[in-house]
């Protein structure tokens, strides 16, 4: 079995690194450029969302991280405009379907125009976490109008949020607290989810009243596949597409298929999925490299798809059985480096640096040496040449190995391909238009329960419930079909969401069968990647 870094773990690590808020010196606010973007494929051209975020103080970068994540999600519904809340102008929200404000900075100075326009009640506003006290102070009759007021942050450990009957997890390391409330008129102030304390007592996770939906925390940190992040993802439907009917689709991607793949395993996978009428995607890297001979008694190996005609034949067979091939990098490793393991294709990162520390944890180190658009383009074109020489049609979807790259790499891929099928890393400076900060301490990882067009401009087909890992590794527990099925069940809370997972063919078909049929048993229908893009 290959040594693998779970892409699920990769994004979780990135999120926890970014959102732990390490101590940093104060610096000036980020640039206040306004950014706009188009909606994801299939979104409503008439739906426009204004995303506002905090950008003052020593953690202005964190405000932009949160703003980026919110922006990525709202792109599912339509076009968007995003900028710091401090540059809000009177009447600005009138041009939008709704407003999302992420209050990450305590006592961020909010323009009175924003407060007054929110209180006017003409547009739906989703307000997260801090600075609700500025809104209530600006209103002469907030309690009478909305039927509640804020009470103070409850810092009790909360490990669960119940949303529309679905119990979701919440990481107790998130110790910033959740706002508690005093509700005076339950007919006006309706609970949006329930936070469950360790002792079983509860309080509202959020409150909706009139045009205002207030969430007592920012549900964009420490996110996992069954986290209360899903509640926020669904809540956006209530604000931006309330007439959306329930629909539950599933996707499966066969992962890390290279010239060294076992053709028999690929054909067995294709036969099983075809027998169940399940479309699927195959993530292919075109060149296998083992520069130090790790798997070949110390003798280096280096060959491409064209040199393995039986693998190419198996890939074409997979296409005939409903498979779509995507480009999964070029070599899925980097030179002869341990990045982080051994330099062997499918084990290592290709577009980002990483290492394994003394505690057996994978640590992100940042962009590769000489990171550039030229480097990315060269690798993509070299891979395309391999595909052509092997007689395979050029792929139209890309996936970064281990879901990791710099902001420059993501932007470059968008110009070359335009569609990614993965999770992603996001960095301060992209949304604000400032200098991009590629430091791993400030990046954030995000997955999506539906298709988005992210801040890099790419359509992103979601992978959101993980993959099978029969054995624990790198401090991560084993993951079995029951775990993925449980994640899929939680994702049913997203009214038009997906359950998307990936699978390594060397695991055989038994785990795949359990997972596919378990997800189908929940009411999901498997669709092709094309259906999502």
TrEMBL record:
InterPro entries for the chain: DUF2334
Pfam families, per the entry: DUF2334
Stretch forming the signal peptide: 1-28
Keywords (A to Z) from UniProt: Signal
Protein origin, superkingdom: Bacteria
Name this polypeptide is given: Polysaccharide deacetylase family protein
